[in-house]
């Protein structure tokens, strides 16, 4: 399904608000349209180097193909015994989080009539490598905390713009996953 | 700090096991070397399109620069009102998870003397879009569950190879973050 913006449609923040409203009305009539399944494949290459490919997904009641295949490489930096052939997994997680809060904020702002001109965020997460290494002493294996500083500019009061970010935070799927956790099942095929 | 593999060093699965053992011994003497801070910056571009850049980080007792800057674009597919200029945030999260479990498994297998020849994984996560849209009816905003199917081949029994994956799962930072959740603080600058 292609997205084409027609002359009589309202577009704000690059989001087709008319199509968004239509989609919400359709989901309101048939909630199965809201069921999505996203997928990825990953192949180990060498050491800390591995590659994911992402293509189709399920949603809006059926399989959705893409014209593009997305390929992303992960590796570790030199001091973590990799060769810097890509960002590392915990850095990709920061990207997923920033991207999701941003997109969710922008879509809701579009629907709420708020024009956004700029959003920038800086993230950091701290961890103790002893967790990954299986050595005693770390509080946990993953990030102990993630801090995000966001700057937002647009055609609304600072309070309204901050509220737009908080709405993004509230509804963002990745923010929910990373702050609350989710069930992961790993099946090893023999 | 560059990683150079010397002739007398043991390398397994592409991991310099001698350097790994040296690093663990150094951390054992001085646990501050295990403190890492990873960072990313994200800039909103348009609609569901935004871009992260990743460069330096803190670790091994100091700031670590990289020769490379990693740039990654997120967008939404057409049916989610984007223009497919990149994988979407929840897909990046699947990549981060697969990459981390894989790398952690490979590093520990290297340290434990297990030769890995191949790891492939297929991931899927299901979510109800009503959460993101702020509509009632969804159990949550993020993935309800993530399923991972992993294939592993190497020079060990199927039981030992499955154990290698379980060790990866047990020590992986992203597995910990995504299964248990972590504290996120968002500060909006005015």
How would you sum up this structure, described in words?
Two copies of one chain form a homodimer. Chain A is of the alpha+beta class. The first copy, chain A, has two domains: about 30-85, no CATH class; about 90-180, GMP Synthetase, Chain A, domain 3 (2-Layer Sandwich). Chain A is built from five helices and ten strands, in the order E-E-H-E-E-E-E-E-H-E-H-E-H-H-E. The first copy, chain A, has helices spanning about 15-30, 90-110, 130-135, 160-170, 175-180; strands at about 10, 15, 35-45, 50-55, 55-60, 60-65, 70-75, 115-130, 145-155, 185-190. In chain A, the strands form four sheets. In chain A, strands 3-4-7 form a three-stranded antiparallel β-sheet, with no helix packed on it. Strand 10 (about 185-190) of chain A pairs parallel with strand 9 of chain B.
Short description:
The structure is a homodimer of 190-residue chains. Chain A is an alpha+beta fold and 190 residues long.
Features of this protein?
homodimer, 190 residues, alpha+beta, GMP Synthetase, Chain A, domain 3, globular
N-to-C terminal Cα separation of chain A, in Å? 38 Å
Shape of chain A: globular
How much of the polypeptide of chain A forms β-strand, as a percent range? 25-35%
Helix fraction bin of chain A? 25-40%
How would you name the oligomeric state of the polypeptide chains in this document? homodimer
Number of domains of chain A: 2
Major sheet strand order of chain A? 3-4-7
Mean pLDDT of chain A: 96
The CATH homologous superfamily of the largest domain in chain A is termed: K homology (KH) domain
Number of DSSP strands of chain A? 10
Identify the CATH class of the largest domain in chain A. Answer: Alpha Beta
CATH architecture of the largest domain in chain A: 2-Layer Sandwich
| Largest interface pair | A-B, 136 and 136 residues
Q: Whole-number radius of gyration of chain A?
A: 20 Å
């Amino acid at each position: 399904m292609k997205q084409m913006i027609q002359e009589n449609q309202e577009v704000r923040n690059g989001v087709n608000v008319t199509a968004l409203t239509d989609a919400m009305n359709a989901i309101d009539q048939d909630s199965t349209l809201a069921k999505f399944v996203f997928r990825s494949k990953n192949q180990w290459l060498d050491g800390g180097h591995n590659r994911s490919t992402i293509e189709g997904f399920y949603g809006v009641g059926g399989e959705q193909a893409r014209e593009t295949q997305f390929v992303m490489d992960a590796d570790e930096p030199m001091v973590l015994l990799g060769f810097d052939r890509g960002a590392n997994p915990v850095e990709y997680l920061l990207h997923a989080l920033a991207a999701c809060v941003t997109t969710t904020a922008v879509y809701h702002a579009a629907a709420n009539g708020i024009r956004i001109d700029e959003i920038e965020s800086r993230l950091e997460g701290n961890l103790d490598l002893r967790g990954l290494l299986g050595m005693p002493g770390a509080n946990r294996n993953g990030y102990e905390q993630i801090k995000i500083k966001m700057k937002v500019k647009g055609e609304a009061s600072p309070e309204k713009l901050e509220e737009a970010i908080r709405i993004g935070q509230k509804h963002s799927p990745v923010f929910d996953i990373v702050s609350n956790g989710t069930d992961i099942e790993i099946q090893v095929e023999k």
